[in-house]
Amino acid sequence: QLRKPVMVSISFLLSVCRYPLGMSGGQIQDEDISASSQWSESTAARYGRLDFEEGDGAWCPERMVEPDSLKEFLQVDLRSLHFITLVGTQGRHAGGIGNEFAQMYKIKYSRDGSRWISWRNRQGNQVIEGNRNAYDIMLKDLEPPIIARFVRFMPVSDHSMNVCMRVELYGCEWLDGLVSYNAPAGEQMSLEGQPVHFNDSVYDGAVIHSMTEGLGQLTDGMCGLDDFTHSHVYNVWPGYDYVGWTNESFPNGYVEIMFEFDRTRNFTTMKVHCNNMFMQHIKAFRQVVCYFRSEADWEATPLSFSPVVDDVNPSARFITVSLANHMASAMKCHFYFADAWMMFSEITFQSDTAMYNTTLAPPKTASGPPTRDDPTHKIDDSNTRILIGCLVAIIFILVAIIVIILWRQVWQKMLEKASRRMLDDELTASLSLQSETFAYSHNNPSSSSSSSAPSEQESSSTYERIFPLGPDYQEPSRLIRKLPEFSQSSEEMGCLHSVSMKSPYCDGVPHYAEADVVSLQGVTGGNTYAVPALTMDLLSGKDVAVEEFPRKLLTFKEKLGEGQFGEVHLCEAEGMQEFMDEDFSFDISDNQPVLVAVKMLRADANKNARNDFLKEIKIMARLKDPNIIRLLAVCICSDPLCMITEYMENGDLNQFLSRHEAEGQLALISNAPTVSYSNLCYMATQIASGMRYLSSLNFVHRDLATRNCLVGKNYTIKIADFGMSRNLYSGDYYRIQGRAVLPIRWMSWESILLGKFTTASDVWAFGVTLWETLTFCNEQPYSQLTDEQVIENTGEFFRDQKRQVYLPQPVLCPDSVYKIMLNCWRRNTKERPSFQDIHRALLESQA
Ligand SMILES: *[C@@H]1O[C@H](CO)[C@@H](O)[C@H](O)[C@H]1NC(C)=O
Ligand SMILES: *[C@@H]1O[C@H](CO)[C@@H](O)[C@H](O)[C@H]1NC(C)=O
Ligand SMILES: *[C@@H]1O[C@H](CO)[C@@H](O)[C@H](O)[C@H]1NC(C)=O
Ligand SMILES: *[C@@H]1O[C@H](CO)[C@@H](O)[C@H](O)[C@H]1NC(C)=O
Q1: Cα(15)–Cα(13) distance, rounded to whole angstroms?
Q2: Which of 342, 355, 590, 724 has the fewest CB atoms in 10 Å of its CB?
Q3: CATH node for 178-358
């Protein structure tokens, strides 16, 4: 059932740079949201946040929107330049009272706050289709993407109507810092009698004889194909992706491009994506000479670089020009012709410490959508030369792909090493940077109280915070500091310092005010459960005492996992029986050591990490379910802080199943231990039951997988969370930009693309976990797809044009159970079953 993998067709930046920028998450401050007018104080601009229900439920302008009038707008100031790839809009629902929405809207944007540019799509249309009802969120890809600091949403209508809007922007910070490029206008080539246009069709500045004050195709994240007459983009003229010039028009032999930046930057490199179809007299440049301006004056000595002129390989490529740490706020480069034509499709800049690793981008050898009807795609059969040319090109592409794949692997290793080193150095960095793994998530208290079903409970987790590109959004401490609890210093926290002086055993976990607590990240293993504020009310009902365990009774056995701020060890504990209350199902004889998992915070962890660790203890202490790992005891009187949780004798479910086989002929021959189908089902049912418990508390797990389930006697299962740094499973996590690691093969489309983690995304992960279980963890999910292809497939789930690839039905899996899986992977989160439903369905499937 698995279709052939789809080629990756968009750039890494375009596919990954899709993080909510903070309208719904709250990182955008109220004062940065403004509007042309407001109908009342309770429909002011600040209520125009997607998914928010405060005030009267949305921003509404004072007047009705009239046809052909563009008076009203909602404006967002992002405080710095951003690369924006996606917008979301929603109307005013206000729990059923409101029914206003914008059926259509336009977007204007500005980089400096004074010059405003109307966004147009690649076909030149400005109008974006908006909402059809007052509650659904409508997401629209921006093609081309926008690079701007200010964005205005302008509702439009073909008749007079009342309009209200809630919006969100998706993207990431624009690290290039490029504000404009000025260049001679692109020219026109005549190819076999047909014109090929190399103009910059999405340039947003002025174009008369030359292009001034704008950005366009050279910064749209879309690299041109090897064959310049073809394009990724549907229904455009030949030469669309490139801006090109002929040496006939430039007697000096070079094209001058001027680049202006937002501020003075310390430049490391410039990467220029060039076409190199030398058979058509197109080559990358022969030499580039760059002049730098930092304050008012141009530096006297330019920098010069001559790449090797390549007349062997016709594929388009990035040429990297080292800018040797020049400080500049503007740059003027002369690109010298190596042949009659020179064509660029993309120019990127790397400066300061921040860097997009665009060179790691997947190859741009996309075959477009199959439905595409491309008149330039005809191949003249009689013309075998072209055919051979194509074959040669394909071979080159394949070679390039192989080289890139190999290179990526080397890179990944290096990045991993580098980031580990970096992490060690950054212990004092802000709490956000704990997200070697996931960021914790936070739920707006007021919005959560109004939402209804538990599956709607959304920990609007924001892995933009772990995305290393946006320093603004890497600062959850900003949010956390607002909360009374976190504003306390750890010195005030019970026994940590003072009490421990007095008594060797402290009286349980320190407790403190628990107003509207956000969830947090596990500081040792990885993420812990996300806990929305609502839940904390439930939790704060009774205090659960967890006792201090004498550290010397722990014997280290092996390391189970590792996070940025600590480690998880497998230990034997003596005398643990005293610490277990009667409802523990351990049936061990007295005084025999028990296997336990010990999460340990490094002694040198910073204050925030310590606070979080104590918080995690509090949360863990209250989770009581037969299918969830229990907290047994803690060591918090002295460093390093530890929490001791259950461990189960058969290890994790992934390893357990890998050692076993299905009952049947094969197993008889190989003599391997077996697990019957009904026991597999029994285990899956227990996972569903544990998740049902977590979801009833509105906890979001975010890393449900067989590797995080433990197996005890008689196929009992308990859900745990060891974090993502276990070497054994490093292949299950995808490293974004060398830092953030995400279990993309288990993640729902909305978690990957929008950073949303909800019970519904846990349900998705459960579907994958169920699939793993029924395939005996023989292979990784989507093992035929590369990480990039998995992300691409995610895009297909998002687009929902029936081109998404599902995991195939396991041999052992009856239709009824496969149907459960498919339901878990529904595009619409509301259509996915709840864990209650899944649990019931699994029980019924065994009956
Ligand atoms: C670029 O050339 C195409 C084809 O001639 C034309 O349709 C389009 O309007 C031009 N765009 C700009 C911005 O000049
Ligand atoms: C630019 O960055 C490099 C490397 O980080 C550093 O060595 C150099 O001193 C910086 N230059 C200036 C002028 O700050
Ligand atoms: C343009 O380049 C071609 C090929 O290198 C060369 O033959 C021609 O003389 C050049 N024309 C000008 C005006 O430099
Ligand atoms: C990109 O790669 C460079 C090495 O060229 C690395 O130092 C840097 O950390 C990477 N950037 C990010 C944002 O991960």
Answers
A1: 6
A2: 590
A3: 2.60.120.1190
